[in-house]
Amino acid sequence: MSLLRELYQEVILDHNKAPRNFRRMENATRRVDGYNPLCGDHYTVYVKLENDRIVDVSFEGAGCAISKASASVMSTLVKGRTINEAEELFHNFHRLVMGEKEGEDDIEKLGKLAAFAGVSEFPARVKCASLAWHTLHAAVKSDTATVSTE
C-alpha cells in the first residue's frame, strides 16, 4: 500500500504542477462547465468529437491539486477513445474513488488512475477528484448544463 501512496503523491504533484491538455479549445464540439461549491473548484471541459470518438479533450479553470491532477489524467486517458470506452473509464474511476474497487488486481488494471485510490479515505475529496470526470460525462452525453457536485 505504501507504493500506492507514493504513486498517488507523485501523480498528483506532477499533474498539478504541469497539467496536460490545460488549454481552451476553440474548435470544440462540446463545452461544459463544472463547479464544486464546497471548495470552489471550477473547470470548463472541452471535447472534440468525430463520430463516436473523442479526438481531443482539454480543460481550463482552477481548483485544488487533486481536482486539477484528476482533470489532467482524465484528459490524457480519454483522448482517442470512443465515447463508450471513456464512459467505462468514468464508471471505473468513480467506483475507485468511492472505495468500491476490490483487491489489488482490480486496482492495478486502472494504471495511473490507481493513484487516486486513496481519495476514497477522504469523502470530501471524492468530489474534487470526480468533478472533471462528471463534467466530461455530461459533455459526451450532450448535456451542456453546468455540472455541480452538489
List the secondary-structure elements in sequence, H or E: HEEEHHHHE
Instruction: Tell me the strand percentage band.
Output: 15-25%
Main sheet: which strands, in order across?
3-2-1-4
Shape annotation = globular
Main beta sheet strand tally, sense and closure: 4 strands, mixed
Domains, number: 1
Rg over CA atoms:
14 Å
**What is the CATH C-level name?**
Alpha Beta
Strand count? 4
| Mean pLDDT across residues | 89
Helix content: 40-55%
CATH topology: Sufe protein. Chain: A
Tell me the distance between the termini: 31 Å
Parts with pLDDT < 50 across at least 5 consecutive residues: none
CATH architecture: Alpha-Beta Complex
SS-based class? alpha+beta
- How many individual helices? 5
Features:
46% helix; 4 strands; alpha+beta; Sufe protein. Chain: A; 150 residues
Structural features, described:
This protein has one domain: Sufe protein. Chain: A (Alpha-Beta Complex), CATH 3.90.1010.10. Helices cover 46% and strands 19% of the residues. It has five helices and four strands. A hairpin with a 4-residue loop joins β1 and β2. It is globular, with a radius of gyration of 14 Å.
